[in-house]
Amino acid sequence: MITAGIDSGAKNVKAVIMKDGKIAGKAMIPAGLDAKAAANQAYDEALKAAGITRKDVRKVLVTGAGRNDCDFAQGEITEVGAAAKGMHFFMPNVRTIISVGAEEGSAVKVNEKGNVVDFAINEKCAAGAGTFVEAMARALETQVEKMAELYDQSTKEIDMNAQCAVFAESELVSLIHSQAARPDIARAILTAIADRIISLMRRVGIENDVAAIGGMALNGGFIKAVEKELNIRIAVPGEPVFVNAAGVAIAAAEE
Amino acid sequence: MADQKQEFWRWPESRWTNPEIDWNKGKTVTCGIDVGSVSTQGVIMVDGELYCYGNMRTGFNSPDSAINVFNKAVEGTGLTLKDLQFTVGTGYGRINVPFGNRAITEIACHARGANWMYGPSVRTVLDMGGQDCKAIKIDEKGKVVAFLMNDNCAAGTGRGMEVFADLLGVPIQDVGSMSFRAAEEPPPVSSTCVVFAKSEAAGLLRAGWPKEKVLAAYCSAMAHRVFSLLEKVNVEREFAITGGIAKNQGVVKRITKQLGIEACETEWYNKAYADKEFPFDTQIAGAIGAALFGKALFEKGRK
């Protein structure tokens, strides 16, 4: 049986094709200005990678903030549900999932069957989302990908007082002017967003194993910051940005 | 500087001297310095009357900002730091005023300043600052009875408006008037977070909304945000708005409409000042309050 899952995020659209419980193809396309076109393109590229066409797919479902822009999906599921299902597929021992995308962050507690037990979500404030780190990296004149490296070079702990992403940007400029070292500033930024996510995790309760998904899971500095604050290990699946889309495709197979 | 892009968020800095006062003849010369996170004001009061003020953007360190604003305020007056009998610092950088004799919170100073500017009948002051927003209940002497404040989030603050002015390429002082030129009043921008509101606004522009309409939607969102703070303090008349956003009628009118209570006239309580067309700057309320506290403290010390 072949099913497809689309995860239409604020920044990127991800598509996964599942064939008999295995990933047969996947693709990621920037959402850009036209989320509908991006969803179609991601879907077609994933199909191409799987060597099939749309008519071979029995069912396609969608999740994510841009789910309404996905005109070909036959139904939708929540991001939280998608994360739980996807994580159960990749790492069945995980009980706490942290998911941080471009414009939202969440913590999801799941049971051994991959069902959602509890969740906490922030989609109102940029300070707990990937956009925050992107804006800060820009102000620091570096790339998000280099933040982890900078984090490792940090020798001194400095605190960011501002919670708000807008205020943090001004604070960061002051830090740069006061000659604070860039690695220390990078660490302060990653620790700030880690704190926001940790407060979501505490709301659902932290149970091992813990794993991270979404774009921010690729930021090693962020993962280290959470690990350090909580003194735990955080696993990251091979392709953390496709976990939700895979979860959606699995849900499509179950329906 | 031709390669520098225009900074739409940058509001004009200003200064003023009261032509009718000779500070040399004054019994008390006191100074209030309000070092905010975005703007810094310095006020000199002579015998409790406003003599001169300066209003500037806060620089990267508070002590320099305090000195710069003092210099701006006293430009052309011949007054120097030595001539000050008492200086009170307020605002977020209040402990970093190098020539300050005392630091007093901006809540107390804004309350005192609003009482002086708008009169003893003011009971509720909304101070809309660069990085915070406070709703303050005061008594007839300008003493704080209760207050609520948001300083965690840029929504409903001057910084939020600056971000929007920049996004839309509209000089910040024109935002209010432009927002009324929208053909119809749109629903408010739905995202609270300024960062998300910015992407929402970009989407609205792409969808073909004119700038005026987007500004109206954001002014309205800001008014809505502030309204929820005001609701919690139970607004009583008279109601005064201070701070930079008090100059933005696009936000002010939408707040008062939602509240059903008009804001005090934007003029000195001292009618004589208005008649002489002296300038009015809602941003200096905190510094005025500080200078008035300075006067009281100086007189107490002398007795």
Provide an overview of this structure:
In chain A, helix 2 packs across helix 8 (243-254). Chain A has helices spanning 35-50, 79-90, 130-139, 147-153, 165-177, 182-204, 220-230, 243-254, and strands spanning 2-8, 12-19, 22-30, 59-63, 96-100, 105-110, 116-122, 210-213, 234-235. With 255 residues, chain A is α/β, with parallel strands linked by helices. The model of chain A has no long low-confidence stretch (mean pLDDT 93). In chain A, strands 7-6-5-8-9 form a five-stranded mixed sheet. Chain A has two domains: 1-79 and 241-255, Nucleotidyltransferase, domain 5 (2-Layer Sandwich); 92-236, Nucleotidyltransferase, domain 5 (2-Layer Sandwich), CATH 3.30.420.40. Chain A is built from eight helices and nine strands. The longest helix of chain A is centred in the C-terminal third of the chain and has 23 residues, at 182-204. Chain B folds into two domains: 14-120 and 267-302, ATPase, nucleotide binding domain (Nucleotidyltransferase, domain 5, 2-Layer Sandwich), CATH 3.30.420; 127-259, ATPase, nucleotide binding domain (Nucleotidyltransferase, domain 5). Helices cover 37% and strands 19% of the residues of chain B. Chain B has helices at residues 62-73, 106-118, 158-168, 175-179, 194-206, 211-233, 249-259, 271-275, 285-302; strands at 14-17, 29-35, 39-46, 49-57, 86-90, 102-103, 124-128, 133-138, 144-150, 239-242. Chain B has a six-stranded mixed sheet with strand order 1-4-3-2-5-6. A four-stranded mixed sheet of chain B has the order 9-8-7-10, sandwiched between helices. In chain B, strand 3 (39-46) and strand 4 form a beta hairpin. In chain B, helix 2 packs across helix 9 and helix 6 crosses helix 7 (249-259). The N and C termini of chain B lie far apart (55 Å). The model of chain B has no long low-confidence stretch (mean pLDDT 90). The chains are: A alpha/beta (255), B alpha/beta (303). Chain A binds chain B through residues 10, 33, 103, 124-127, 131-132, 135, 163-167, 170, 173-174, 177-178, and chain B through 37-38, 60-61, 131, 152-154, 159-160, 163, 191-196, 199, 206.
